[in-house]
Give the backbone structure.
Amino acid sequence: MKAYRAIVSARFRMMLQYRAAAAAGLGTQLFWGFIRIMIFTAFYRVAKAPQPMTLEQVVSYVWLGQAMFAMLPWSVEPDLRVMIRSGNVAYELLRPVDLYWLWFSRSVARRSAPTLLRAVPMFIIAGLFFGLRAPQSVGVAAAWLAAMAGAFVLSCAISTILSISLLWTVSGEGVMVLMSGAAWLLSGMIIPLPLFPDWAQGILAFLPFRGVADAPYRVYMGNIPLNEVWVVLAHQLAWIAAFVVVGRALVGRGLRRLAVQGG
Amino acid sequence: MTQIVVQDLVKTFRVAERRSGFLGALRGLVKRRHRIIHALDGVSFTVERGELLGYIGPNGAGKSTTVKILGGILVPDSGKCEVLGRVPWKERIETVRRIGVVFGQRTQLWWDLPVIESFELLRDIYGVGAREYSSAVEELVTLLDLTPILDTPVRQLSLGQRMRCDLAASLLHAPRILYLDEPTIGLDAVSKLAVRDFILRLNRERGVTVILTTHDMDDIEALTNRVIVINEGKILSDGPLAALRATVTKERWLTIDLVEEGAEVSDEDATVMSRDGGRVVLSFDPDRVAPAALIGRLASRYPVRDLFVENPPIEEIIARIYGRACK
Amino acid sequence: MLDDVRLYFKYISVSVRSQMQYRASFVMQSVGQLLITGIDFLGIWALFDRFGGLEGWTLTEVALLYGMVSVAFTFADAMSAGFDLFSATVRNGDFDRMLVRPRSTVLQVIGQELTMRRVGRLAQGTAVLVWAAWAIEAPWSAPKALLLAAAIAGGTSIFVGLFILQGTMCFWTTESLEIMNTLTYGGRESISYPLSIFRPWFRRFFIFVVPLAAVNYFPALAILEHEDPLGTPVVVQWSSPLVGFAFLLVALQVWKIGVRHYRSTGS
């Protein structure tokens, strides 16, 4: 456990060094937020019928997405990718720690500092100036925090599986491109999920990706009532369990396969 | 004919300091501290055509900074420098066309390509004529024994093979000056000898001026007749190897292997430096006692099985020079 | 100059051959990209489906904007991998290696790689563009086709210029700054929509600072013979792609400044 904690804290300290990057990251998120909001605003101007979300809700949704941006599982840790490419990943086998959790902690490590460094200022700025509404009650806020914790863990689990899939050099890269693109799209980061066509809502509710962004944001906005929050959490938990189980099974196989091929 | 002139080169760097610990990291977010490094502090020397010059110093002494300035990569803060009549950083492309550089740790070849294709690409980059190229390749391939590996991608080569290919690559455009930065680092003994032999022939037979920066003192002894020692941006010594040795010390070392361990060896004209089992190393001043006399005395006093006399190794010489400079 | 162009083609032939060694991986990633970018456009389609229109622009018209910028961006992205990786190049000392060669540094960096994987995205962008070109109401003509080509070339120039600027920043800081990503990826995304839907400050930024509007929105107005709520003169609409090339020249100058800085401060 200590080893994992060391990894996380070392990465945290390292990220604090990059202050220009932090400031630039903030600017980036604001810019993207503006783009999205302007686009949606334009669409809403011509809207004839009432929509599943009001424009204010869309605005909040977009800012939540930008604040939480660093958390999302849309890429693989670059160090791991380099390690696998060069074959140095064999060294991972030499470390006296459980491999799956090692890579999981890497995922946690890489996300925690940037997420915190961005989310806090983003919340303040977007909340003060750009229309991010506060949650309606303390209960909603608490439920939202729980859902965010679930989203964070789920995101790490997905990203860990993406890293593991790279152990299969050819098919793994295809899987990674597809799944990270899908995660990006189907989590609601480009377009809020409720705005997708009605016939798609069922699939979107089932897939794991909404648990990473869409579901917690809707809890925040009150779009999902408090008594239905447990559905969100259960959905996240179920998918986390699924990814962890599959991930653990795959990691051993993947590394042994690499060892056989000679890395 | 003077090819390289370096006069009073000065170069300083500002390095941001990283703070340790969590609080330090937070503080570093707000305010950055800087350290000034004097990489070169008034360096001067000249190099004539056909010299084979060793440029040595501890890490951070200023060796690579000098080479970078000579290569036009870096602009000095002040001072004068001319390579083949040109100021390197002012006329980068023309200067660089006439020199070759080999960095020991990084290859200049393309990782995924067969060696010969890297050569062809370099030919196009340097604009070497077809005839000059084919004769250069033929010669270099023969001299460095590259025929079996010409079609191998660089990533599959061993370190020794790669270094030989890098050497050939740096000479395709027939440069008159060659900078070699740690060329034998990490090589096995056989490859080291091959590389050294090649460099020697290059210099003696083809008259290519070579500047060699290295930590390997065997390279220095085998190849160079002139050595420049640099430390903390200042030149400590510049001249033939023997003179370098003499300025530090005339002392010589006598190593004795005793028949049986344990004998207490001592002599009024020599100092025991180390004792390891049956082997004793003594240092003595040949002006005070002739080697033959000392050997005779010790051999008659102690059961000596074998012995030899040598100069102190270069490392020892260099260490003393640095030590002296530190005072 | 011609010699440089010839060398560039030799460089990228090396890059392509070396990527083709990993053929299966390349196919896999290209197909993946094609699918993902396809879904990306479906997102826009979904929005049009739900909202019915966008301030006087139809889906096919927006598709033209989308296709133009997507193709331009993909060309630039495929060519500029060297600048994308530039921070690693500097850190490794490989840039010193480039300085020691008697060739322009820009040529050497841009010659490092031509990313073939991008062909998936290129296929999708081209497909959307072709569909849009076929589906729009306004008639086509030879001048319009030329304008389209110029616009795409100009767009590629701007994006390459942005990537060069991104690489140039590595001379001053080793931190990877995401600011440039907002301009490249963010620019691509926003310019896929008609400029008129954005706020005035945003419009002015993409007209005068990073003139993506000049290589996308304005030419498209001319091609579509669309009414312009901003009232741009027709002359501007037809000549605006030139701005793209000017931007690239400016970026190259900034690069030179960056190299000068690198050579006086080391790494």
The first helix of chain C runs from residue 2 to 20. The mean pLDDT of chain C is 89. Residues 139 and 229 of chain C are 21 Å apart (CA to CA).
